[in-house]
Amino acid sequence: MSDISKSFGGVAALTDVSLEVLPGEVHALLGENGAGKSTLMNVATGTIRPDAGTMVFRGELIDNIDPRDAGRLGIAFVHQHPAVLPDMTVFENLLVALPASVFAEGPSREEFARSLLDRVNLRVHLSDRVETLTVAQKHLLEIAKAIAVKPALLVLDEPTAPLGEESVRMLFRLVREFVAGGTSVVYITHRLAEVRELADRVTVLRDGRLRATAVVEEISDRELLSLIVGRQLDSTFPPKYDGPEGEEPNFVLDRLSGPGFKDVSVAARRGEIIGVAGVVGNGQSDLLRSLAGLSQFDGAVTINGTGVSSKRLLSEAAYLPADRLSEGLMMRLTVRENAAVSALTRFRTRLLLSRKRELGMVGDTLGSLSVKAASLDAPVSSLSGGNQQKVMVARALLSEPELVLADEPTQGVDVGARAEIYQILREVSASGIPVIVASSDAKELEGLCDTVIVMSRGHVVDVLRGDELTEERMIHAAVSSTTQTVGVEDVAEAELDERAAARRAKVRRFVQGDYAPSVLLVAVMVLLGAFIFAQNDRYLGAFNISAMLLLVSALGFIAMGQTIALLTGGIDLSVGPLVGFLVVIGSFFILNESSGASILLGLAAMLGTSIVVGLVNGTLIRYVRFTAIAATLTVYIALQGMSFILRPTAEGFINSEVSRAITTKLGPIPIAFVVLVLLVLGLEYALRKTPWGWRLRAAGSDEESARRVGVEINPTIVMAYVATSVLTFLGAIMLMTQIGVGDPAQGVAYTLSSITAVVLGGTSLLGGRGTFVGTLFGSMLLVQVLNATVFLRLDQMWQYILQGVLILAAAILYAVARSSRRRRVARKA
């Protein structure tokens, strides 16, 4: 890479940076947070295009590459924030990210995928949804994707930050294997010990500029630190507490038990910091979550002589979670809003907040942590990982808490900022606020903490103080413990045999999956149908079944299109007016006196119009940057207006022969409904088994991650809206035969009806997950409910009440399921 420059909004991220990586070497890339390390590698892998500079790979000049091009060239990138798609399964993540040729190496795609996971020691099921994985497991999945392509250049961005000791050793072993095979590795890290262990050469960036490149053996740690931070660091860790021995503790845990841990007891005096050590996943994070009031606990917590409850801790404890993206930050809010949200009462002037006070206090706190951001009102998502971590620390300081809980507080943070965070935690503890730090870095706990409890399987297996507090003692205590796992769930699973546990896991995956809502809808339809039939035996008559299925056919086609829009994370409000507009167009061509050519021309005009509308919607959203609601609402208004311009009143009777042909039945079952079912099955197969479906869900699950793994977002979403409109065209044909006239007022109601059917079917309004099968059942239930009001002789008002109840029930069930999943994931993390 030669003379690479890149600016964002006028702020220079890289200025004339050059980097040379030799074949078969590990090249470490160091620098503070925001120094430009990740940006430089994003340029190398095509995620970001540089403003200036050139790149040569294996002797060839490369220009304007994207992530998929980089993959074909043999460049793989393990991102600091894993480019995984949370709404998709582990197996689907591999299918989206990896070229099809990679899977040819195994007897089957599934077997090859399992071998990949085994190679990185990732013990999860291929059908597990990625959102249920821990942070460490997501990183291991990211590593598995990278090694699968046998890259010529492997970029590792802070790969060990969330990993335990065993996983770190595994990663180092893989790196050495790849280097021995000729692969070049760019290794981004803040841990100098890892540089010494792995790297051949090192390059240092500061403030977006190249500061030095050197052979690792020829440069000292002190020199590296000076290059990284631009000054000499006297010591990484501040002096430990040195107070009187007889002082009473200001923080006491007495036999604390909760989900994932049991009988934890420890005490600390004012100025002392408590550390929590152990192999990742042995109760450390569970303990901190309970102390933050996020989980219930038994036992006593005493702060400054006063017992505190879980409810009080929820409001008074400052918690820095290990997973800053999912739990720590609100990524759509600004830097200022994220830092200030827990301290709003401090900025209050009588009834209102003082903007001046907020800006002053937030600015001072962020400044003391050297947070690098374009402005206080820049989106927090635009910051580097380390600077995002500092924003969480700033929020904790601003909230004036009774207790500070830090889970992996320096994860992804540069050496200079680490020293600043350590100093701040020491100052907080000295002020009388208890501080507890959980970290997978034993050296960090040794240098920072006064007391360390070592946990294994939820129990405290050792308490270290003074001269006993060493890295070796912590690691030995953690790995040599024979303590049994605690927790009701763990004990129950241990008593089950392996086959029963596998069945339970299978059921759990189904309940968490996309098809569970469909089963629920079928059950509701059967119960509702049985109740109506008990009141009126004509309900299951051939005429009523046929009439309902015709209505389902019209709504179903439109709802299928709406499903595609929602899967991308968008929505299409224009489907209702589009249906009406297409019927109006048809009413000029498909008349009783029309020739066959005229009818075909009318159908072609309807199809062409739907394609144009889809292209307009997609273009407005992706290229003009309208929101999906704004774009499709604009088209909604335009289509409705044009319908009334073309047909001010209902005119133009539809050809009766065409209507009869479209509504042909096999017994009581309309042919159109059979076509709908076949279309649903085809779309469902495409959604699960083809690249089109994987890309569609990837774009809706996490757009940035999808882009990083090579999904072309803009074409995918534009074509999704085209598909939505084309399916709406099929619904318009059904509506045209049912109303038999070009009525401009018809069709509008299908916008809300289609959204209702899709939501009932379990498709997420946030995108990324859903099923066409569920949408079909949602359409059937919606029509059944409307039909029920007739057979039960209910007022029309009940149609709206019952629809509202169904939507509310679906929303509540979905929210409860998602929140329970988040709690399980948090406990695992």
UniProtKB/TrEMBL annotation:
Subcellular location: Cell membrane
SUPFAM superfamilies: P-loop containing nucleoside triphosphate hydrolases
Stretch forming the signal peptide: none
Molecular function GO labels: ATP binding; ATP hydrolysis activity; transmembrane transporter activity
Membrane topology, record value: Multi-pass membrane protein
Limits of the ABC transporter domain: 1-232, 246-482
SMART domains for this protein: AAA
Principal location listed in the UniProt entry: membrane
Keyword list, A-Z: ATP-binding, Cell membrane, Membrane, Nucleotide-binding, Repeat, Transmembrane, Transmembrane helix, Transport
Gene3D superfamilies: P-loop containing nucleotide triphosphate hydrolases
Transmembrane parts of this sequence: 513-533, 539-559, 571-591, 597-616, 623-646, 666-687, 717-741, 747-766, 798-817
Domain of life (superkingdom): Bacteria
Annotated InterPro entries: AAA+_ATPase, ABC_carbohydrate_import_ATPase, ABC_transp_permease, ABC_transporter-like_ATP-bd, ABC_transporter-like_CS, P-loop_NTPase
CC annotations in GO: plasma membrane
PANTHER family assigned to the protein according to its UniProt record, in alphabetical order: CARBOHYDRATE TRANSPORT ATP-BINDING PROTEIN MG119-RELATED (PTHR43790), GALACTOFURANOSE TRANSPORTER ATP-BINDING PROTEIN YTFR (PTHR43790:SF9)
Protein name: ATP-binding cassette domain-containing protein
